[in-house]
Design goal:
Blueprint lengths: L14 E2 L4 H10 L4 E12 L2 E13 L3 E8 L3 E5 L3 E6 L4 E6 L23 E6 L11 E7 L13 E6 L6 E7 L4 E12 L17 E4 L4 H6 L2
């Protein structure tokens, strides 16, 4: 999944359907904080079959830093320190690293939550989703057309990103990423905290003794099967 390349598109024009402007503004205002924290459930599925589900806690710190701490079924860490993305698997005694701007990991663009929350960084066009329904009937489901996909030929389907938002608060409830190959990656969020006390050391990765560093990163499917 190449969602990470969208971070390169900053402060560009965005097309927002008139009926979604109010909820987009509410969402952006909700996450204009120095630090954020939430619990999450992440699931990866192929052709309707769930390959893997993981849960943990995610932390964000301005500017552009985040830390995903996976607790179940196994412990691992995905960290972006502002420059480098790190993925550490304690059980394998390995850590992969890649410049954050070159990361193709599907979590990388979520660093936009750590700072000035602007959907224009990721979305070229936003409208209400017609193909995906929210989990809760009271929520709104936004369809985000990713930057760099507008050149596709008519009828060609690539990656799609959907944002489920609570319309009364602007809280981000769910992110769904899917592509034409039948892959779906879903993040469910709960227990959001705005401006919790988070030490900056939480967003610095110290390579433990004896851990091998690998330059590069696992593809989404490889990670889901071989964490």
């Amino acid at each position: 999944m190449c969602l990470g390349v969208c971070l390169a598109a900053l402060a560009a024009a965005i097309s927002i359907a008139p009926e979604t402007k109010a909820i987009v503004s509410l969402l952006e205002a909700r996450y204009a904080a120095r630090t954020l924290q939430a619990t999450f459930l992440e699931s990866y599925s192929e052709n309707g079959h769930t390959v893997r589900a993981e849960s943990g806690t995610v932390y964000f710190r301005r500017p552009g830093k985040m830390r995903w701490e996976y607790e179940a079924p196994e412990k691992n860490v995905f960290l972006v320190d502002g420059r480098t993305a790190w993925f550490y698997v304690p059980g394998d005694r390995t850590v992969t690293r890649v410049p954050a701007k070159q990361s193709t990991d599907w979590r990388t663009p979520l660093a936009l939550l750590a700072g000035e929350m602007k959907l224009s960084r990721v979305c070229e066009k936003i409208s209400y989703a017609s193909e995906e329904a929210p989990r809760s009937p009271s929520d709104a489901m936004l369809d985000c057309q990713l930057r760099g996909t507008g050149h596709r030929a008519k009828g060609e389907v690539g990656e799609r990103v959907y944002l489920e938002v609570a319309p009364n608060s602007g809280e981000l409830v769910r992110i769904l990423v899917k592509d034409s190959g039948g892959i779906r990656i879903e993040f469910l969020f709960a227990n959001w905290q705005r401006d919790p006390r988070l030490d900056d050391s939480l967003f610095r990765f110290q390579v433990p003794p004896g851990v091998a560093i690998v330059n590069g990163e696992l593809a989404a499917g490889e990670r889901a099967v071989n964490p």
